[in-house]
């Protein structure tokens, strides 16, 4: 006789429905729910990139700011968006949950883009157009304040969305079920694919609308897309699977450091077996199931957090979690600290990548962008070559490079995460070398034809000369993205998986901020003579800036190689120590 399915089989462990009851497997989650979440990512990419890639031309052409100032405004905006992912992830994991995070921050992002749209419609919020015989008037303080308010409200919404959408989408699948785990992996692949589709639509269709129909139309479409995605998302409320906030891993890191500091004057025991572990089973709360990590001798000052120095009251152990941590918690924090050098050595790559959305777009405005007699490519649409290369590199790696790497390196997964990342760093150097050579050729052409003061670009070098630098950076980003994300997901402790996306995105954020600092410094040093990044690029020496980035990238690669050689993968360390889960 067939047995009835158990409650465990009919419901999903650790997941709840809209009413707070255990989520029924047949009525919640799955592809139906996940697809309603994907729309939020498409809208976020469409809006964010639709604003970012064409923002430098808006700042120079409409707000009449210089190239260096415009590039810095763009990089600060995007850098803040990525940095706020840490805040959004902390809020969602610790307090409100991913569902509410998405709903609230989508509304915040829509508000920011709506304000940006209004600023392009009201004439008083932008300076007058340049007249033929009079100098251009830069945007005043009021106009810039409205612009910055719109951008940073948008950045806040973007940070909350980016940190929550992939996690909430994967929550719709049960990782303990073999079939659903396969579906979850497919969802993550589709998530990255749809994210790039949204990016491609932004740099082609949306940019074309902005340039030919007006910014108000382009930004208005972004608002409609976000609102529509939010409505679709809310329609699935009763179908979703929810997981209760379990606390941020940032808290665990803070707890370990606080406990180690409070016991800094105590002596460490000679035997690590005397330190506090889960086996003592005296925690004030139920112990969490974690992978046991071998005790390491690095960062030994953190071991003091696990020294058994507590009070005994009536035979009951009284423990303050801010005073005592388990050895596993300490080793997890150590593991994160060991990963930080790898993370830090990828920041320069994103500094190179951001040039494709700022200075390379400014280059494109000075070049011949005509196809035929009537059609002219929007300058910002050149980034479509970058995104298109990303979409092509991933399947090319899977079908051609990976099989060869498996045979040559005798590694079942092909390139390791650190090798993936290293390839991306090498490609970033090559992209800046190509960019410097192409910019030198462009300036030689301009000077030889007496076009130094001509900004129309119609009689200048073809814009397609810029394609190599966009494609090389795009291929490098594909390798960097696959390698670095795989590195964080694999190496981050099990209890800190949600922090991996925040760390990954924060490295991009720092790369954007470093770009702003570098542009400002270079402009300040070179301005008294002949500025490298001039308001009129035909009168500057941008190729020198690209050479500087190539040199910095080469130095960074050497540092990365040293860090990668020093690093030992978690699974290898565990197997060497003979520690089991």
Features:
two-stranded antiparallel sheet, disordered N terminus, 17 helices, Growth Hormone, Chain: A, 64% helix, 3% strand, MFS_trans_sf, transmembrane transporter activity, 581 residues, globular
The helix content is: 55-70%
- N-to-C SSE series? HEEHHHHHHHEEHHHEEHHHHHH
Find the structural class using helix and strand composition.
mainly alpha
**Mind summarizing the main beta sheet?**
2 strands, antiparallel
Mean pLDDT: 82
Radius of gyration: 26 Å
- The tally of helices reads 17
How many structural domains are formed by the residues?
Answer: 3
CATH topology of the largest domain: Growth Hormone, Chain: A
By CATH's scheme, which homologous superfamily of the largest domain applies? MFS general substrate transporter like domains
The multimeric state of the shown protein is single chain
Given as residue ranges, the uncertain stretches (5+ residues, pLDDT < 50) are 1-8, 311-318
Task: Note the overall shape.
Answer: globular
| CATH class assignment of the largest domain | Mainly Alpha
Strand content: under 5%
């Amino acid at each position: 006789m067939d047995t009835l399915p158990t409650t465990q089989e009919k419901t999903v462990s650790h997941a709840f429905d809209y009413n707070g009851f255990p989520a029924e497997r047949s009525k919640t989650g799955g592809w139906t729910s996940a697809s309603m979440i994907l729309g939020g990512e498409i809208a976020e990419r469409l809006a964010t990139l639709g604003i970012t890639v064409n923002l430098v031309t808006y700042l120079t052409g409409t707000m009449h700011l210089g190239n260096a100032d415009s590039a810095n405004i763009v990089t600060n905006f995007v850098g803040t968006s990525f940095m706020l992912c840490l805040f959004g992830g902390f809020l969602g994991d610790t307090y409100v949950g991913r569902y509410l995070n998405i709903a609230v921050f989508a509304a915040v992002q829509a508000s920011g883009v709506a304000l940006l749209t209004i600023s392009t419609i009201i004439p008083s919020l932008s300076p007058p157009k340049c007249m033929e015989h009079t100098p251009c008037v830069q945007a005043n303080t009021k106009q810039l304040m409205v612009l910055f308010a719109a951008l940073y409200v948008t950045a806040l919404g973007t940070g909350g969305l980016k940190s929550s959408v992939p996690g909430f989408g994967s929550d719709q699948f049960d990782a303990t079920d073999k079939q659903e785990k396969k579906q979850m992996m497919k969802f993550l692949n589709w998530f990255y694919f749809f994210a790039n589709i949204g990016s491609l639509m932004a740099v082609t269709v949306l940019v074309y609308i902005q340039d030919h129909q007006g910014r108000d139309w382009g930004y208005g479409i972004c608002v409609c897309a976000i609102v529509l995605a939010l409505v679709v998302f809310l329609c699935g409320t009763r179908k979703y699977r929810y997981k209760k906030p379990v606390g941020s891993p940032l808290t665990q890191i803070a707890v370990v450091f606080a406990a180690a500091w409070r016991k800094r004057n105590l002596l460490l025991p000679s035997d690590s077996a005397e330190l506090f572990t889960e086996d003592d089973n005296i925690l004030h709360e139920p112990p969490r199931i974690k992978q046991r990590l071998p005790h390491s001798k690095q960062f030994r000052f953190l071991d003091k957090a696990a020294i058994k120095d507590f009070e005994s009251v009536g035979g009951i152990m009284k423990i303050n979690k801010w005073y005592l941590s388990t050895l596993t918690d300490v080793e997890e924090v150590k593991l994160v600290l060991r990963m930080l050098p790898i993370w830090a050595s990828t920041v320069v790559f994103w500094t190179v990548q951001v040039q494709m959305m700022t200075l390379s777009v400014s280059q494109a405005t000075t070049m011949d962008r005509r196809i035929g007699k009537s059609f002219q490519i929007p300058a910002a649409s050149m980034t479509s070559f970058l995104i298109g290369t990303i979409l092509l590199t991933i399947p090319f790696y899977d079908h051609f490079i990976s099989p060869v790497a498996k045979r040559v390196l005798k590694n079942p997964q092909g390139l390791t995460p650190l090798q993936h990342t290293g390839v991306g760093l090498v490609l970033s150097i090559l992209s800046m070398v190509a960019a410097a050579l192409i910019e030198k050729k462009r300036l030689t052409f301009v000077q030889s034809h007496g076009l130094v003061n001509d900004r129309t670009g119609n009689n200048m070098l073809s814009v397609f000369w810029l394609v190599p630098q966009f494609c090389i950076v795009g291929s490098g980003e594909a390798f960097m993205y696959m390698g670095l994300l795989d590195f964080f997901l694999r190496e981050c402790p099990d209890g800190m998986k949600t922090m991996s996306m925040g760390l990954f995105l924060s490295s991009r954020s720092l790369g954007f901020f470093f770009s702003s600092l570098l542009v400002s410094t270079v402009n300040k040093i070179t301005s008294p003579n002949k500025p490298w990044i001039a308001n009129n690029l035909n009168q500057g020496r941008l190729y020198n800036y690209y050479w500087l980035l190539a040199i910095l990238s080469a130095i960074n690669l050497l540092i990365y190689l040293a860090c990668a050689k020093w690093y030992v993968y978690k699974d290898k360390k565990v197997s060497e120590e003979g520690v089991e889960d």
